[in-house]
Amino acid sequence: MFVKSLPNMLTVSNLFLGIVAIILAFQGNQYVEYAAITVIIGMLMDGLDGRVARMLNAQSEFGKELDSLSDVITFGVAPAFIMYVVALQDLNLIGIFVTAVFPICGALRLARFNVQAGVPGYFIGLPITAAGGVLATLALYHHVFNVALLAASMLLLAFLMVSNIKYPNFKKVGIPKAAYWITPIIVAIVVVFAVKYPQQFPKIVFLPLAVYALYGIKKNVDLLLKKLRKEKKEENESLPFE
User: Fold this and answer.
1) What single-letter DSSP state applies at residue 198?
2) How far apart, in Å, are the Cα atoms of 65 and each of 11, 14, 70, 148, 169?
3) pLDDT at position 207, please?
4) Average pLDDT of 97-110?
5) Cα–Cα distance between 191 and 35 in angstroms, integer?
6) Which of 4, 43, 119, 133 has a 20 to 30 Å separation from 170 between CA atoms?
7) Which of 9-13, 187-191, 202-206 has the highest mean pLDDT?
8) What is the DSSP letter of 176?
9) 3-state secondary structure string, 34-82?
10) Sign, CA torsion 167/172/176/179
């Protein structure tokens, strides 16, 4: 019984970390790095619960719904509040609106994911896990980037979540069962490194997450340009010779 409930325990851990991230965000700017780290650790939990469920053959509709609800908090609400505390609260009503849009789009993204059949090997729209990770770590650059740019980036991430852009799905990449014993060690190493270097760690994580988010935009632009070139070529070939 305990073994079968392990995936749900990981999901609840993810939810717990999201709540802790929100609390840390409102404790002052000196705790923002720890709030971002908490979201990153939540990403690890979110990546593990599905894999463990498949490994133990413990997948269920209850676990699926619990995972979605947890993701809205940890990767929707928590990162939005982190950004609001460090930057957007200076924008008054606009800041409140932008803060609300992000988790709303995240909830829409998850609802669509739960009811629509996806494309094998791909996510349709930027996963809320990646979007929340980008936003939580981007907030740490609030001294570098203009507030307007941060707000625009937040709206862009929200749009990418509800878009039809395809993103590679790494969640279903197989891991040998014999390798699962090393997972707690990896999580422990990440936690120790994050606690020891709270300022540097989340900023490093921001880079691969941002590249992943931008990858979808680049791929979509490439497909659009390819389609336009094809249409232009067909149009030229259909013209009569003079």
Assistant:
1) T
2) 10, 14, 9, 35, 19
3) 76
4) 95
5) 13
6) 4
7) 9-13
8) -
9) HHHHHHHHHHHHHHHHHHHHHHHCCCCHHHHHHHHHHHHHHHHHHHHHH
10) positive
